[in-house]
Amino acid sequence: MGKAKGPSAGRFSPGRGPLSFLPWLVLAGILVFLFARGIRRGPTFDFLAYLEAGKAVASGGSLYGAEGQGGGFFLYSPAFAVLFSPLASMDPKRAYWFFHLSSLGAFALSLLSLGLVFRRSGVGVSLPWVLAGAGLLVLYPLASNFKHGNTNSFILLLFCLSLHAYAAGRPFLGGLPLSLAVGFKVTPILFLPWLILRKRRRETWGFLGGLVFWMVLLPAAVLGPARAYRETRSWVSRIVLPAAFSKERIRPRVLEESGESLPRITHALLAGREEGAGKTRRKGLTPSLGILSRKQAKVLGYGIAIFVILATLLLTRGEPGPGEGGFGLVAAAALLASPVSRAAHFVLLLPLAAWLFRLALSGEDEEKRRRAWARFALGAGILFMVLSILAAKTAGFPSKTFFPDAWLALPLWAGGLFLVPRNAHP
Fold it and tell me: For residue range 280-315, what is the model confidence (pLDDT) as tens digits?
């Protein structure tokens, strides 16, 4: 008998055989682990910063007026504060419960959305195994996200909803959640040039329309036009631009002590140590080799980041269909290029990891070579993830400077860039 073809080949089903329940058990275990991870911590500092911003929306205070205790303060857009403001009227513990359960639900819906996207492609693979494998691959970033009460699972859901809308033939609608992600983290703006280069006009207009709605109209309606303009200008000048160019106005030595992206890794490996800089490696990556000046290492790091962005945009523009592979690659490139990517941010590798697992588990004969490369990329990602965990958790292990979280993203990005179809016309 021939291999199954058509849309039914990739449908959700337990499958057959004694191990058919295993991927469902893995997915359930991941959700239970994440639930316990967040509840055990209680309201986190990051969550309390969101809550204070929500209260400032109602009280008329400035969203970006001063740093809070612990050296951090609200870093997100006014649109995020407006959306979060309903929780500010609740008891903090109840609000955190709602936030945590919503974050957990967002991750579950992300898995469901990805499964529906791959089901439409008709590829004859077991979707539960694809989703379970991808979930396990990003489990360490997920644990960090739920430990600190971050918003990355919501951003992930927005990504997956957009990809699902594109796959379902609703391009303009797909731009709305994708543009809202910019209100959480600025780096999803990278999807705009990707859509333009793919000559996807309706997707592009949907994205631009969503930006206008979320970033301009919604804050103006709630805060008033004058205050919305003032807060947005403050966000750009005090948060976005300093983070992009490593100015000390946002947080001291943001490039040197925050994040594990390619600019950060380059600086950590090659730059000389600043006099008086901290020596505790668990608080960040510490400069080690000292073969370049700090300025030279910074320029080289940003040069590598620009190369990653350009390579991703140019080599994925010809992918047919909704562009599942290219979509995941753009998300990965944004993580690799951002100067302040942290462990929890790498949750956003889930779409790319799922796409690679789908290739790795494909049974089609013509996919044999691509299947081997996908397995190699996933294997390298798993290896680097384990080394990164050991570097962070094990005393006596080499410094995390040499095994940062970005090493998980790099083989997935490189393997995906090699495997993505690029000869078709969009």
Answer: 343 445 556 667 777 787 788 889 989 999 999 999
**pTM of the predicted protein model:** 0.86
Domain region containing 382: 27-419
d(Cα 371, Cα 58) in Å, to the nearest integer?
53
* Rounded CA separation 58/54 (Å): 7
Residue 402: is it exposed, middle or buried by C-beta count within 10 angstroms (0-12/13-18/19+)?
A: middle
Question: Is residue 414, in this structure, part of any structural domain at all?
Answer: yes
User: Is residue 18 assigned to a domain?
Assistant: no
Q: What is the DSSP string of 126-143?
A: -HHHHHHHHHHHTHHHHH
* End-to-end Cα, the chain, rounded Å: 34
CA distance 44 to 408: 26
Give me the half-sphere count of Cα atoms (radius 13 Å) on the Cβ side of residue 29.
Answer: 12
Pick from 9, 161, 38, 185: nearest CA to 101: 38
Please check whether residue 1 lies inside any domain of the structure. no
Strand partners, 412: none
Q: Give the residues across from 271 on adjacent strands.
A: 292
Distance, in Å, from the CA atom of 419 to the CA atom of 335, rounded to the nearest integer, reads 19
Q: How many residues does the chain have?
A: 426
CA–CA gap between residue 304 and residue 312 (Å, rounded): 12
Is residue 56 within 8 A of residue 82, CB to CB? The reply is: no
Contact between residue 353 and residue 137 where contact means Cβ atoms under 8 Å apart: yes
Q: In this structure, are residues 12 and 119 in contact, taking their beta carbons and an 8 Å threshold?
A: yes
Q: CA-to-CA distance for 250 and 260, rounded, in angstroms?
A: 17
Report pLDDT digits (tens) over 107-134.
999 999 999 998 887 666 678 899 999 9
Taking the alpha carbons of 87, 186, 103, 177 in that order, is the dihedral positive or negative?
A: positive
d(CA 372, CA 380): 12
Residue 14 — pLDDT band, cuts 50, 70, 90?
very low
Q: How many domains does the chain contain in total?
A: 1
Phi, psi of 292 (to 5 degrees): -130, 160
pLDDT band at 69 (very low <50, low <70, confident <90, very high): very low
The encoded tokens of residue 414 equal 């490189």
Report yes or no on 21 lying in a domain: no
Q: How crowded is residue 356: how many other Cβ atoms within 10 Å of its Cβ?
A: 30
For 349-394, the pLDDT digits (tens) are 999 999 999 888 876 655 678 888 899 999 998 998 888 777 777 6
Please report, for residues 75, 303, 340, 370, 407, the alpha-carbon distance to residue 316 in angstroms, rounded to integers and kept in the order given: 31, 20, 25, 16, 21
